[in-house]
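quick one before i forget lol
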Amino acid sequence: MKKVKCTKRCLLLSMALLLGNTAFTAQAKAETVTEASTGRGQGVTVENVTLHTYVGDDGQEAESITYLLKDIKELGTITPEDFKITIGNDSYKVNDIKIMGNNVKLYVDAFRYLGKTVYNEKMQSTHYDFAVDCTVDALDLKKGDSCRVMTRTAGDFVRGTFTGSNGIELPYWLYLPSGSSKVPLMLWEHGGGEVLATSFEGANILNNRGAVSWIEDGYQTAVLSFQFPENYSFGISEKPDQLKKMQEYNEVIHEFIQDLINKGKIDSKRVYISGASSGGGAVLRFVMQYPDFFAAALPICAKDTLIPISQPYGLAYKFNGSLALNDQDYQKCYQDISDLMKHYNITGVPMWFVQAENDPVCTSYTSRILYQVLKDQGAKNNKITMYSDEEMKQAGQMIYHSSWVPAFQSREIMDWVYSQKKQ
């Protein structure tokens, strides 16, 4: 079972990462590092360092490190015991070392490239970066040192920008299977922790498996994700300027996908959409705006973009006390969402709602009530999964917001999405 970590993933990350223009290969100018004149391995010179990473449940994880030395003969004998990798109080082992020419490759326990942020009972945070310490000082490494970062699967996405007819320009990341045409497309809507204002360029691809999971789990599909400049507020439905901005972003993305369809790259009958947290709420509004566009939708821990629930009822970021609405408040929310959905015909869009029952960040009532409203209005092909506290713990989550983790471990959910096709 995955080690339990108390982190607020997808919401509070604000680290900086330099990324290449066409792939997630962070290239920094190589520096020559020479060990001091005393100590083990005197004269060892490191030409460059490469961190090999992948996108895990907790974000970008380093799984091996390669040092290119100027002259391997200067190194002498080196063993895994010569290295110590730490992030705060956590230690990670070097499990094996392979020497190939002048390259020294360490195979390590996976550790978060961006370090980790730990929260106390008052949700106050402390951040720790990784550090690699070696008995050969020249092989010491820490976050921020010059190195090359190569990320599996994420490195196959092409970065670009697209300007819609409304004049709005947004950055995007697109994966297209080589040698294929008219493939399905998954549009991934990232969470509030991945916006550019508080995160880094490419966080929408690297901070969780929302984008890469479809590729790594074997689906022959294109994947697209746009990164937004900032997050929207709770109660966006009562903030006309923010709602208008979301709709304008949707126009840009819709035009981009339509262009891919027109060029014969995407199957127009198999365009899917998924997103988590703020992205889950964005999924709902995207489907409402373009109800005939998507073959299926997977909104995960959706933020309440339909009507305000989290803030009026004190359910946003509520880590203590009850998360339940009383019957009267539930009925009011049900009626308000029912009245809203009378203006939008989305009963024909297959949707699988996913959330933790006791999500303390974004209330699960948006998902639960919308599922029931659509069912009452005639939807026949919708599903809902509400994870219990125990199921979230088994998935390694101590904050029950990160329901995207068990969702992307469920082949049933993912297969269901890709089994849907527009008539």
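fyi The longest strand covers residues 45-56.
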